């Protein structure tokens, strides 16, 4: 009888934890004023900025530090600031900084919460100015889209829900955890597509040829090689799929 009672209590506690996670998620849902998309966010823009500034030095160090040529650093920042000043980004509270990383082997670009944007020299060295604008516009899109904050909130939600399921039903926790991972994976692809579209818009607003964004996708595809990870196993959509969405965005914003 004691074991049966203990089992019932465990189920009740587990369900309560899961319910708490869902209620908290619903209460933390808000509309992004810059994209119009409803998001689950559990931090302020000030916290995003603080996280980005605190994490920036470590992220730079992981890629060999900043590229030593101050002229190229200034060029990257100038292109980034041009995109900010000609788009909705200038109306946001974020502090945008654009960093050229010394890493000459890893083709990559990324953004931290709050406006810290990075591009490796390996990728930078393959781009013209318009293509660089496309990459930086994409990263600004991640910041404005609050994608990192959304992923952090989702991660916290699934951590709490998994804990509740584990308490209540043992192995069910691993199932919930798997669902959480798949959801984050799907949302990650959506983030990339949203940032691609925003990047196209920012390029047009700043006077850059948006079709150069397609060339960026071709560069990324070539860099990945024939053995690239299949789309369903990656957080990024396949470059070919991204190209089609970019073409649609160009028509949407440019009409041609």
From TrEMBL:
GO terms for molecular function: metallopeptidase activity. Its EC number is 3.4.24.-. Its cofactor is Zn(2+). The keyword Zinc applies. Residues 73-249 form the Peptidase M48 domain. The keyword Metal-binding applies. Belongs to the peptidase M48 family. This is M48 family metalloprotease.
């Amino acid at each position: 009888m004691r074991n049966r009672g203990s089992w019932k209590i465990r189920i009740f506690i587990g369900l309560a934890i899961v319910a708490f996670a869902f209620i908290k998620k619903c209460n933390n849902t808000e509309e992004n004023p810059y994209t119009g998309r409803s998001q689950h966010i559990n931090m302020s823009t000030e916290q995003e900025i603080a996280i980005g500034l605190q994490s920036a030095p470590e992220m730079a160090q992981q890629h060999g530090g900043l590229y030593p040529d101050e002229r190229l650093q200034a060029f990257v920042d100038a292109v980034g600031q041009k995109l900010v000043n000609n788009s909705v980004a200038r109306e946001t509270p974020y502090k945008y900084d654009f960093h050229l990383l010394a890493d000459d082997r890893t083709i990559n670009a990324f953004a931290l919460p709050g406006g810290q944007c990075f591009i490796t020299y390996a990728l930078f060295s393959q781009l013209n100015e318009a293509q660089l604008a496309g990459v930086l516009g994409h990263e600004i899109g991640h910041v404005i889209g609050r994608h990192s904050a959304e992923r952090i909130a989702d991660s916290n939600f699934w951590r709490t829900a998994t804990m509740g399921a584990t308490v209540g039903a043992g192995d069910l926790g691993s199932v919930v955890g798997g669902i959480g991972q798949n959801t984050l994976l799907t949302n990650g692809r959506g983030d990339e597509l949203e940032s691609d579209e925003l990047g196209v818009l920012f390029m047009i607003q700043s006077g850059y040829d948006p079709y150069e964004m397609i060339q960026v996708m071709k560069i990324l595809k070539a860099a990945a090689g024939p053995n690239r990870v299949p789309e369903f196993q990656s957080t990024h959509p396949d470059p070919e799929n991204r190209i089609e969405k970019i073409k649609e965005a160009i028509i949407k914003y440019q009409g041609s």
